[in-house]
Amino acid sequence: MSTKIIPSDTAKADDWRLKLFGDQLRLNTKTKSGDVEQGLQEISYASIPDAFDGYEYLALFFGANYCPFCKEFAPTVVAAAPAFEAKKTKVIFVSNDRDALNYEESCKKVQGIDVMDYDLSKTAQMRDMFGLKTIPALIILQNKDFEKEEPFEVSNARDILELDPNLKRFPWGSIEKRQAAPLTAWERLFIHGMHGKWWQLGHKNVSPLHPGDMYMDEHAVRIRAGLLNVITWVAIMNVFYMRNLLLVNVVFGIVSWEFVTSMLFGLTPFAPLGIIGTLIAVALQPSPLWKPATPKRFAWGVGLMLALSCFVLVQKKDEIDEASFRASVAAIALTCNLFTWLESAAGFCVGCFVYNNFFVKYLGREECKECKL
Fold first, then answer.
1. Which residues does residue 26 pair with via DSSP β-bridges, in sequence order?
2. E strands, the chain, in order
3. What pTM does this model have?
4. Which residue from 112, 106, 107 is spatially nearest to 31, judged by alpha carbons?
5. pLDDT tens, residue by residue, 222-231
């Protein structure tokens, strides 16, 4: 395979484009036949300043050869490349492949758009900078202010491109701003009207990307997780110090009611901690942060199973030796404590992670593309 390198112009060392992409961009134009002939294709490169000259925006397509959703999304991005060009937007493929061989396979699938050189460290830097948890992704950046530390991110347009393939509304605003549909405090507390029925798991018509799907306010979910975390501390103290059987029954009653009602009807109107969390969120967070509701139901089912296991162990206490009993109950309580802390403090839902990486994969359920890590 011959390689043609286009000489690069000089650029300032503090240009954020050089820090992100390196010195050059691989030109990934189609061959006359439309196919790639291994060993015969000539690879050309252009300097980053030359490749980006004249463009107002950059569209970074993050994908990988192992990702089936990336393979489905790639033709959409390639087909939209002329429309992006008309909007003075340069489309670049950023490989998240795990090795160079798969990188080359990915390059074949995105013939027609230029490609960033294979560099896992720079790719990881980009994912951290843009807060990416899922692929495929399509990050829109402004191609200006090169002296700044980081570029200005306009949006993650992975879903928006499929709704607006001809880019009639480009440049698109951020998905988060589009999701933050104006709701009154009463609408956030009690689902009704255009947002669904009071007994539904979450709100509808709050995301223009998926108006028919149900969403929950992530602020309220995390506050509720914090309240559950306090309860797990009470349970842990009871295991090691108080050893009060009545307190075990009270805690289990509260937690089981909370999980059962929230799994069936969402955070309101029957889940007491969900109601408190929603009230606090309404008071402290004027704009909801909508996240898909289905993975939360699965996560709360996991929580209910843990609570039930602990309760059964307590009821069978006389049939189990003291050391095994305390170790088992403590392990369950500490697990619940860790899970609720991760969600309330770090925003990481273990149940949602399991849902997307195992439940979806092996049981053929629909993936939550807005949650998966």
1. 45, 115
2. 3-5, 24-27, 43-47, 57-63, 89-95, 114-116, 137-142, 153-156, 215-217, 290-292
3. 0.57
4. 112
5. 999 999 999 9
